[in-house]
């Protein structure tokens, strides 16, 4: 017999309050980019599928410069600034990035800020402690994100509009929620 299932959140919410705990932003069934976090099976045995047509920014990451010392006194302020404006909760113990070393923690914080700023020029400054790299710094379960490109759109027809695509995407989200509700019955 199938268990009752209740979906709390379809997507992770990076801006949600962490007052109850750092886990609060990570209840989603899907990652920020529409990729499934879990291998879920719905009624009829069909699995959840990733969002289609997602475009990412350039494959570049902001990391701690190789010659920078993690004990540099400016690191604390730079990481504090990065995590004030970007979600660093995945660095918490027990989280997907909780096992990184000091260099990894600093690099993750810098990259979260850089990606949240849509890789804008100057968003990887951090008092000359950081550098942009094209080598993916992801380690184990810790995925260093690349932000979704919101400036370009994959048009299939000339008359397609962003609003029509958004409505279609949310229609798919509603359909998935309806299927999950059926599974819960």
TrEMBL record:
One GO term describing the cellular component: plasmodesma
Signal keyword on record: yes
Superkingdom, natural source: Eukaryota
Ranges of residues in domain X8: 60-144
Keywords for the protein's UniProt record, in alphabetical order: Membrane, Signal, Transmembrane, Transmembrane helix
TM region positions: 162-184
UniProt cross-references to InterPro entries, sorted A to Z: GH, X8, X8_dom_prot
Name by which UniProt lists this protein: X8 domain-containing protein
Taxonomic classification: Eukaryota, Viridiplantae, Streptophyta, Embryophyta, Tracheophyta
